[in-house]
Structure formats: C-alpha cells, structure tokens
Predict the structure.
Amino acid sequence: MQSRASTVAEYLSELPPDRRKVIAAVRKVIRKSVDKDIEEGMQYGMIGYYIPHRVFPAGYHCDPEQGVPYLALASQKNYMALYLMFAYVGTAAGTYIREAYAKAGRKLDMGKCCLRFKSLEELDLDVVAEAIRRAPSKGHLKVYEAQTSPEARKKRSAARKAARA
C-alpha cells in the first residue's frame, strides 16, 4: 500500500497505533545504523533511506529526481517490510542476513531484498543493524553503478535474448 504522505511524520500519523509502534522501533535502529551519507524521507509512498544528490548528483537512474534508494520501511496491508536494496540477492549483506537468521534458527521471510515481518518479534533488529553497518553508502553506490552501467545493461539484455531463443 503506497501512502500519499509527503513527510515521514505524516506517514507515521496515518498508521494504526500498533503498527506505528513497530515502525518507530525499526526506524530508530535504522537511523542509528546508517552512515552520514544516507538521508531519510518519503520515497515511493514509503519511508525511504537514500543516497542524496549532494553525494551522487546523477540520482536514481529510473527517476533522476530521486536519490539512489538504499532501503525503505513500509507498512503494507498484510505485513510490514524492509526493502533492503543494499542487500539484494548475491550481495554480502544479503548473504549475511540469510546466514545470520539460519544460524539463530529464526524464520526468515525474505525475497530478493524484501524482508517481511508481522511483528517486532519476527524481525531480528540486531541482524538488520549489523547488515546496514556492513553495507556503507559508498559500497552500495559501487554495486549500483556496476549494475546500471551501459555494459551491464547490454549484458543483461543479451542474456534475456539468449534465454528466449
């Protein structure tokens, strides 16, 4: 569910009290864990944490008016979610999260980068905080630039064509 809120405070005020409490707790951990080059604001109807234009002037390749997404926090219809762009499948941070949950014997509901949870107890905040610390904005930008380079786009396009043949 995308919110039409224009500020984080407005977004939080729209949430039911039980969800607001959980989102606020997760937000506190995120804000303590991200580095100084990450800013908080609304992006795509969610609380977004992004690399702003002052750090990466080109902005997000899909929408250059936006900063480069790093992570997002949202209250969806049936769950809450962390969209951990820095922890996409195949990244060290993504591997760390999956391994840490497995080692602790905790259930992990995670897609390529979306970590879903229905309560604060389902989310391992220590693991989330450590994953954020392990994925500084500069490292995320290196991966982002490598994935969005013209060479990388051509390679993916060729792979898609070959798969269809």
